[in-house]
Structure prediction request, 261 residues.
Amino acid sequence: MEVTVVGWAGSFPGPDSPASCYLIEADGFRLVLDLGNGALGALQRYTALSDVDAICLSHLHADHCIDMLGYSVYQKYHPAGPRPRIPVYGPRGTADRLSVALGNHGKRMAEAFEFATLTPGTIEIGPLRITTALMRHSVETFAFRIEHAGRVVAYSADTGPCDDLVTLARDADLLLAEASFVDGPGLPADLHLTARQAAEHAAGAGAAELVLTHLVAWNDPAVSQAQAAAAYDGPLRLASTGLRLPGAGPVRPGEGRTAGT
Ligand SMILES: [Zn+2]
Prediction:
């Protein structure tokens, strides 16, 4: 299993990254995990859009799903003819919400994608065993535990502090944890994690590696990294566009894990 960070910007695209999107590959199967603003373009650096086998949407905030609209154009109007429908797993109401955003073209959404509703639990998607749990966010939001061939990747999606994230990420080889906030007074509850809280969740879960993601452009990433490092002593890094995560698969030459950077 390999994970490629396509987009890591939190809440809105930043100057160096689209909003949330990750490509998970295993046995030739390609799963797109979230598809936020700008991610559809960057995704094509790593896979042809015609080669995507399934899509999972953690929740229906625009920075995690809005590029599904552009994807429907690709699916419907490709010069070679309409593309086969792609399975899309999302929260309740995903098809309706995306159809409204598209502007009353619900038929196109239904023709382009085959929607399935996520509930907490475990499902098989292609060769991947995927367990979801509800997080603490302002809308229904699922975190993911993705297992393949003995490797485990966990993804927090958006959440405030949440014991269920610790459970979901238990002994993961890699935790992709959101770190929208930096330490400070008056942070809203049940919305996002600070980098330090992300690290505390990784430590509590016993995750072997932590990647901070959903980093918001108005924060200094060096501050986020330093605050996380105070609470987690394993390998820690910031997400970056195109980052292939060796924690999710065999370590490649030149991609050795680097602690504390
Ligand atoms: Zn959100």
Confidence is low (pLDDT under 50) at residues 249-261. The chain is about 25% helix and 25% strand. The first helix runs from residue 39 to 43. The helical segments are 39-43, 62-65, 68-77, 94-102, 106-112, 163-168, 195-205, 221-229.
